[in-house]
Design a protein that fits this description.
2 copies of one chain form a homodimer. Chain A is an alpha/beta fold. Chain A is 36% helix and 15% strand. A 7-stranded mixed beta sheet of chain A has the order 6-12-11-10-9-7-8, sandwiched between helices. In chain A, helix 6 (188-201) packs across helix 13 and helix 13 (399-436) crosses helix 15. The first copy, chain A, is globular. The model of chain A is unreliable at 1-31, 34-104 and 382-386 (pLDDT under 50).
C-alpha cells in the first residue's frame, strides 16, 4: 500500500476548507441544503465544535439520517453510509506531527454533495440561491488562491472575456484535426492554425508534421512515447530520473523496457551515464525522452549532446527516436539565446508542450507535434486505430484550441519573447534576493525555476502553493509573477525563518545533495 | 497508407468553410489580416475564381510572399511554404465523384492562421477588430451547426451562464481527486460530489470506490482496461466487434491479447460466440468490455448473460474483470425499466460514462469509477505510478466537474428519469414515422438510437451531421431533440428521397445485413 506522508507542525485546518464552520452559520436560510456541504477530515473537528451545541449536527450523524430520508425517494434498498477517512497522526522525532493519508480510503476533505432538488424548488428558488452562494464563495477562494500562487508553472494571467460567448456550445474536435468529421460543432480551423504556429516555431514544414491539441502535458508524453514504440516495437525507453513521472507511467502502460539514466546536480541528464546504459543495450533501438525543462529544477537536457552520445555509441538515425518533453520550456527555449534549439531539423521524432503553462489557459491542454511519416507508419495498421484517428483521446476539447489561438494571435512570437525575458529577469532577481538573505538557492542558466530551501512551515508552503521535494521547494517564475509579488513572498519567508530558526536548536536544512554545496547556505556550507 | 474515402455527388464547397469567398470581401477593412484565413482544399477553387481578377491572390501564391516577408522579423532562415493538400478525385461507376483524402498530407480544409501582431495594432485596434469578427462569424456557425445536429449523442441543451465567472481561472485537478495537492486552484470538492452521485447510481459505497472525472469516454475505457490488465497481467481482452474503437486501441497500446466477439443483428454481444471463444482460452483470466450502448446501434450488451456465460465456462469471480463502457447509456439505463442493471453489486470491475453526452457539457468529459481494492493493487506498485497518481492524465480540467455538479444538482435523479423517458418516447416516434414513410429503420428496445437507411446525398448527411456506417445512418435522440426538430428532419428526408429515387434507376439500399430483413424496407424486403 502506498503511503503519502505530509509533515505538518500543529496542522491547522483553516487552510483549505471552502466552507468553514463559521460560514456554515450564514447558510441558515438555505437550511435544507446545509447537508450539501460535507466537511470532513480535519475540518470536521471545527464543525463538531461549533455545531454540536445546538445538537443538529454532531460528527456528521445528523447528515446520515437526512441523507437516508432523501434517498427513500430514489431507491429504498440503497443507503450509502458516510465515508470516514482514515488519518493517522503520530509525533515524529523532532516534535513534528506526521500526518499520513492512507491511499485505500477516499479522503473526502471537503465535498459539495449533489442533492436531489425538492418539488417546490422552482417556486422557492432555494436551490438556485444555494448554488449561487456556493459558487460565489468558491469564486472568492479561487481569487485568493490565484493571488497566492508561486509553485506551479501556470501562467494565471489571462483574459478570455471575448471567448465567454462560446461557452454555450459543446465544441468537440473528434479525432484527427486534419480529417473532416460530420460533427459540425468543432474548432479544427483554430486548432490547425495553432499547430501551424508551433510547426514554424519548431521548424517543420506544414506537410511534414502531424499533431493535435492534447488535454495536457502527460497526453503529449504518452503520445510521443507511443509513436516511438510503434516505430521501434522492441526499442528500449531511456529517460533521466528527473523526467516527469508520466514517462515511467508510459513505460509501464506500454509494456516497454525502461532504463533510468542518472542526472547532474543541475537536473540535466548525465550523458556519461547515458552512454554506459546505451552500450549495455546496443542491440536494441533507443527511444529517448529528453526533458526541455524538468519538473523540479527546470533543467534542460542538452539535446545536441544526447544526439552526439547516441551517434558515438553507434546508433544511426534510423535506430533511435527522440521525444522532447517541453512541458513548460518548450515554448520558452526558442526565445532564449544560447539555449539548445528544439528543432525538427535535428533528428527528433516529436515535441510536446503544455498550453496552460506558459501561454495560460483556463483548463489544462497541450500541443503535440510529430513527423507525418511516423503517423503514416502508425496509421498503416488500420486495425490498431480501428478508425482514422491517431490521437489518444478521440473526443477532444474544442475550446482549448480557441484559447490558444486567441493568445498566440494577441502576443505573437515577439510578445512571447518579451515575456520570456521578463520571467528570466525576475527569476534572477528572486535567486539573488534569496542568496542575499542567506537562503540556499539555485537557478539553472536557461530556466525560470528557482529551487530553494524548503520552508519549514507546511502552512506557509500551502499558502504559497509551493511544490516540494525532499529539502527543496521551487518557484516557477511565470509572466504573472511580478517583482512586487516576489517581494511580498520574500518578506514573508524571511519573517517566517526568523521564527522557525529563532532558537538555534533547529537549523535550516542542508541542500548539498539537492543543489550542490556551492548553492547551499546551510551552517556547514555557507 | 490509410485512405479515407468520402463519396460525394457534385460536391459543393459551401457546406463548411467558415470564411467563404464572398465573406472575404467584407473583410477588406482588415486587409492586412486577410492572410489569416487560409481557405484550402475545395474552397480554394472558389477563392481563386473570385480573387484572381484583381491579381492579389492567385492560387495562394501571394500568401506565400507575404508570409515570408512577415517571417523576416522572426527568423530569416526559416520560410514555411504553403501546404498543398492532395485531393484525388475520380469518377466512380455510377457517375459519382469519389473524393479521397489521403492521410499522409495535412488537410488544411479551413484554417484560421495565427499572425504576428503589428507594432501599431494597439493603437489602430485592427487586430482586435479582426479577431472579434472571426469569433462573431464562428459563433454564428456554431449556432447554425448546433441547430442542425442529430447524429452524435451530445445533449446540446444546457445553460451554464452562472458558471461564466469561473472562466478566468486556471482550474486544474492535478492527480488523484482524493489526495490533497498544494495547487490551490482546483475543484476537487465538486469532483468528489459528482463521483459520490454516480457511486450511488451504480450502487457502491463511498469507501469502496475510487474514480475521477476524465477527459472523455475513451479515457474511461483506457483506464478501465488498464486496471483490468494490472489485476490480470496475462488476461485476454474480449470485446464485441461493435465495441467503441478505443477498446481495440487500448489492446494495442497495452500489448494485450485481444479477442473480438461476434454480435447479434441488434448489435448486442453474441454470447454463444463469446462462450466458444472463452473456452479456447480457458487457461487465461478474462477481461471483458461490456457495451452499455454501442456507438452505432445503441445496443446494450446483456451484462447478466455475460456473467452467466463466464460462470458456465468455469471462470470464478476472481478470474475475470468486467469493464462497462457506458459512454451514453450508462446514465440512461438506470432509469429504464427492464434494463439490465449496471451495479457494483454484480461482479464488475469498473464503469465509465461520458459527461458531455446525456448530461451535456461544453467540452468532452466523463466519469470513471472502479473498486478501491483494484486501485490499491495498482498503487502498491509505486514504480508504476512514480507518484500518488492513479489517473491516466495527471493534469485534469477542473471546469468539467463544476459543469457536471451544476447539472446534476439542478436536475437530480428525477430530472434525468424524465429526460430519459422523453428521449425514448421521441425515439419511438421517429422510428414509427420512418417506417410509415417506407424507410428501413431499427430501434433497440432499451435505446434512443434510431438506425435507418443512409441518405443518398452526402450534403444532406453533412447538413444534419449524421454518423454513417455502411448503408446505415443513425440519429441519437437526446434531450435537446424535440418532436418539432424530428418533423423538420423527416420532411427534408422524405423530400430528398423523392428526388434521389425519382427515376427508378437508383433504388434505396438494402439493410438486411445491417439491421435484419424484418427492419428493412428495400424493394426486396418491404
Amino acid at each position: 500500500m502506498y503511503i503519502y506522508k505530509s509533515k505538518t507542525k500543529q496542522r491547522t485546518c483553516s487552510s483549505s476548507p471552502f466552507i468553514s464552520a463559521a460560514s456554515f452559520a450564514h447558510f441558515s436560510r438555505f437550511s435544507k441544503y446545509l447537508l450539501a456541504a460535507r466537511v470532513m477530515v480535519g475540518s470536521s473537528i471545527e464543525l463538531e465544535a461549533t455545531m454540536s451545541s445546538n445538537g443538529s449536527l454532531v460528527n456528521g450523524k445528523a447528515l446520515d439520517r437526512m441523507t437516508a430520508a432523501e434517498e427513500l425517494a430514489f431507491d429504498p434498498t440503497e443507503v450509502v453510509s458516510e465515508a470516514v477517512p482514515r488519518v493517522v497522526e503520530s509525533t515524529g522525532v523532532d516534535g513534528e506531527i506526521t500526518r499520513e493519508i492512507v491511499l485505500g480510503r477516499n479522503v473526502h476533505t471537503t465535498c459539495f454533495e449533489v442533492t436531489e432538488p425538492d418539488a417546490d424548488d422552482e417556486s422557492t428558488g432555494d436551490k438556485d440561491a444555494y448554488m449561487a452562494s456556493v459558487l460565489a464563495r468558491y469564486r472568492k477562494t479561487l481569487v485568493e488562491r490565484t493571488k497566492h500562487h508561486l509553485g506551479y508553472p501556470y501562467n494565471l494571467d489571462f483574459d478570455y472575456g471575448a471567448l465567454g460567448q462560446l461557452q454555450h456550445f459543446s465544441i468537440n474536435n473528434l479525432g484527427d484535426p486534419f480529417i473532416e468529421s460530420n460533427y459540425g460543432v468543432h474548432s479544427r480551423q483554430f486548432e490547425v492554425g495553432v499547430l501551424d504556429w508551433f510547426a514554424r516555431l519548431w521548424e517543420i514544414e506544414k506537410d511534414d508534421y502531424w499533431g493535435y491539441i492534447t488535454n495536457c502535458g502527460t497526453e503529449g508524453n504518452l503520445h510521443g512515447i507511443l509513436v516511438g514504440r510503434e516505430v521501434f516495437p522492441d526499442g528500449v525507453l531511456y529517460g533521466s530520473k528527473e523526467s516527469h513521472y508520466s514517462v515511467f507511467k508510459a513505460a509501464r502502460m506500454y509494456r516497454m523496457e525502461c532504463v533510468k539514466v542518472g542526472t547532474l546536480i543541475t537536473g540535466e541528464i548525465d550523458c556519461t551515464d547515458f552512454k554506459a546504459k546505451l552500450l549495455q543495450n546496443k542491440n536494441k533501438p533507443a527511444i529517448i525522452n529528453v526533458n526541455i525543462g524538468t519538473t523540479v529544477k527546470g533543467a534542460v537536457d542538452d539535446l545536441d549532446l544526447v544526439i552526439q552520445t547516441l551517434e558515438e555509441c553507434g546508433f544511426s538515425h534510423d535506430r533511435f527516436y527522440i521525444h522532447c518533453d517541453g512541458a513548460l520550456f518548450g515554448l520558452m527555449m526558442p526565445f532564449v539565446k544560447k539555449a539548445p534549439k528544439v528543432s525538427f531539423k535535428k533528428p527528433i521524432g516529436s515535441v510536446s508542450v503544455s498550453g496552460h503553462k506558459f501561454v495560460g489557459c483556463p483548463m489544462p491542454c497541450g500541443v503535440q507535434l510529430t513527423r507525418m511519416k511516423h503517423i503514416n507508419a502508425l496509421s498503416s495498421n488500420v486495425e490498431y486505430l480501428a478508425s482514422r484517428d491517431a490521437t489518444i483521446m478521440g473526443s477532444r476539447n474544442g475550446h482549448a484550441p480557441i484559447f490558444l489561438w486567441y493568445t498566440l494571435n494577441r502576443k505573437g512570437y515577439k510578445g512571447f519573447q518579451k515575456e520570456v525575458q521578463k520571467c528570466l529577469r525576475n527569476a534572477h532577481y528572486l535567486k539573488d534576493r534569496l542568496r542575499d538573505a542567506g537562503i540556499s538557492a539555485m537557478l539553472n542558466e536557461l530556466s525560470s525555476t528557482v529551487v530553494f530551501e524548503r520552508p519549514r512551515d507546511e502552512e506557509f508552503v500551502r499558502r504559497w502553493q509551493l511544490a516540494c521535494e525532499r529539502n527543496m521547494a521551487h518557484i516557477v517564475v511565470m509572466p504573472n509573477v511580478t517583482i512586487e509579488k516576489l517581494d511580498y513572498f520574500l518578506n514573508e519567508l524571511i519573517q517566517g525563518r526568523s521564527i522557525w530558526y529563532k532558537d538555534e536548536k533547529v537549523r535550516p536544512p542542508c541542500l548539498e545533495t539537492d543543489i550542490g554545496s556551492h548553492n547551499c547556505s546551510c551552517a556547514l556550507h555557507k
